[in-house]
Amino acid sequence: QVQFVESGGGLVQPGGSLTLSCASESIRSIYFMGWYRQAPGKQRELVARISIGGSSRYADSVKGRFTISRDNAKNTVALQMNSLKPEDTAVYYCNADPLFPAWGHGTQVTVSS
Length: 113
Known about the structure:
0% helix, single chain, four-stranded antiparallel β-sheet, 47% strand, mainly beta
């Protein structure tokens, strides 16, 4: 079963930056990889997606601030997050799109002064 391991979260002030990383043995063979997030009391949402060839799409709420990238040779996907806002506070997960059944533990991102 495919497993995803997320890392890189933390506490950051508004306007700050973080880079998240996702690792899995299967990433090089997954066509679309995505970063998802779930804020307290809200549904999990897809914030960025990247194809195996590097084409990316973003949710309107993060467009221009977040950048998704992947390294198929290293089986990793990254999410560079700039100009962070308090509303970006959430647990961030990576998964395929469409979803694979197993979720990782996620990584907590907290944006607060």
